[in-house]
Amino acid sequence: MSWKKTAELMNTIRHYAGFPATGVSLRQMVQFGERPSTGTLFRASQFLSEELPIRLAHRVQELEELPDGLNEMPSIKRVQDWYAQSFEELVTLSRPKLTQEVRERLLKPAKKASKESRILSQTTPNPSITKGQYRSEPRGFDENGNGNGGGKVAAAKRYYVAADDGQEWPPELHQYNLKFAQTLEKIKRRHDSVVTTVAQGILEWKRKQQRMQIDHNVQAFLDRFYMSRIGIRMLIGQHIALTDQRQRSDPNYVGIICTKTNVRELAMEAIENARFVCEDHYGLFDAPKIQLICDPNIHFMYVPGHLSHMLFETLKNSLRAVVERHGQDKEEFPVTKVIVAEGKEDITIKISDEGGGIPRSAIPLVWTYMYTTVDQTPNLDPDFNKSDFKAPMAGFGYGLPISRLYARYFGGDLKLISMEGYGTDVRSEWERRSPINQKTMLQGLTRQSGQSISARSAAIAMASRVKRLKVDNTMSWEINERRQVGDAESMVNEGLEAAWWRNVGMEEGV
User: Fold this and answer.
1) How confident is the model at residue 210 (pLDDT cuts 50, 70, 90)?
2) Which stretches of sequence are listed as region Disordered (predicted)?
């Protein structure tokens, strides 16, 4: 029986869309450690059961209000229905009936709170957070914005709240955690093909409107929509992995976050996949060679899936350019280079090809969705809305814009430098001092260590960072240090990301 949305459901969605999203920092995500307790996972499940419907409701409403008839496209309506159905499944999911004793245990501070939940010093200020900016601090606001507010209301609205008193938890909590994770898994699978389905919707709209390119408003919507999608899937994927982690754990992982991401291994895998797709698409016996220059000992804290996506998409673009520049019948192609460098402050990945480059006039367009250097944008496969849809070699103009969103999501960036007539360099970079890869942060936040970051060290790091970037504290700290996972709505609406990127000399802001 097919699912249909009702007027009552849409009214409920509009009600939820009136609430702002609650920021979830990367610090909270890694505080769970290798084996979170049943109580801690239950508190996180309760948070997500309230937070995810709000984020999904925002997307439903935004899709409903798209201008110029874009909201009437069949593929856009299909995506809207997916979000509405997922919203309904979350808000109707039954919760366990807890005794008063269990409720009190869940609200008590964990026995190890001094080593885990209070790692982030309460004396370390966050100058970017103002009263009322996040709904997670209506009364317990400590003016630090580091997630350690003393108020009970603030704690109740955090993703990570340690709940471990050393006693066994009743089985209904464990059963609910599993049921909630299974619901999230179903939602995640349903939304696997959102990117390709929205792409089909934009194609339908362009053809109906007889437009060659999308305008600024549609570009801004897609940036906002896809950034939010990354955040929602980050929260869902992290929670599913944390639940599964209780049965089989990996000391290098906290959920989907790898504390020791090996860049060389991921790069080699992306190279192999990109060359395979190139050979399959062009019917080549041997795709253009790719030389990898990377120290095998470069590790940093990151989400491997995000890095793999960025590497694969940029490599795929380079190989396509090389083959089409030099011809499919050429026996030997120029070698594409992947260079990974680790400095004192930055980790940089540069992909250099000899694919002829991009004309100066076309460079601003490469960041535009649906722009492609392929002569004609192809139709999607009839099965484009299935999770096993086979992506084409090129043609939809999503590779670079989406990859840049992934890079910027955790404070990095992706830049392109073209030399027309020769080739193109694509550079991805992240700051080593950012919380996602700082060794002291890793030591402080995982369960393997009880050491904390001192207020003085945090203050020195903050001062050094602000001096280096030469930007307003309010902008840089909010975007780079606090990095609210998935809180794209508030960042875009308040103009924080665009202002920060402009301040550090990046022309292309969300």
Assistant:
1) confident
2) 113-149
Q: What is the DSSP string of 158-170?
A: -S------SSPPP
Confirm whether 465 is domain-assigned.
Answer: no
Indicate the number of domains in the chain.
2
Q: Do 241 and 315 reside in the same domain of the chain?
A: no
Is residue 462 situated within a structural domain? no
What does DSSP assign to residue 479? I
Helix, strand, coil percentages (3-state) for the chain, rounded to 5, are 50, 10, 40
First-to-last C-alpha distance (Å) of the chain: 40
How far, rounded to the nearest angstrom, does the alpha carbon of residue 178 sit from its chain's CA centroid? 24
Cα distance between residue 497 and residue 510, in whole Å: 7
CB 480 within 8 A of CB 431: yes
d(Cα 141, Cα 108) in Å, to the nearest integer? 19
Residue type, 352: S
Write down the residue that tokens 């937070």 correspond to: 51
Could you list the residue range(s) of the whole structural domain that residue 354 is in?
Answer: 257-453
Q: Does one domain contain both 422 and 445?
A: yes
Rg of the chain over Cα atoms, rounded to whole angstroms, equals 23
- Is the pTM higher than 0.70? The answer reads yes
Question: How many whole angstroms from its chain centre is CA 286?
Answer: 34
> What is the CB neighbour count within 10 angstroms for residue 102?
17
User: Are both 145 and 117 inside the same structural domain?
Assistant: yes
AA identity, residue 62: E
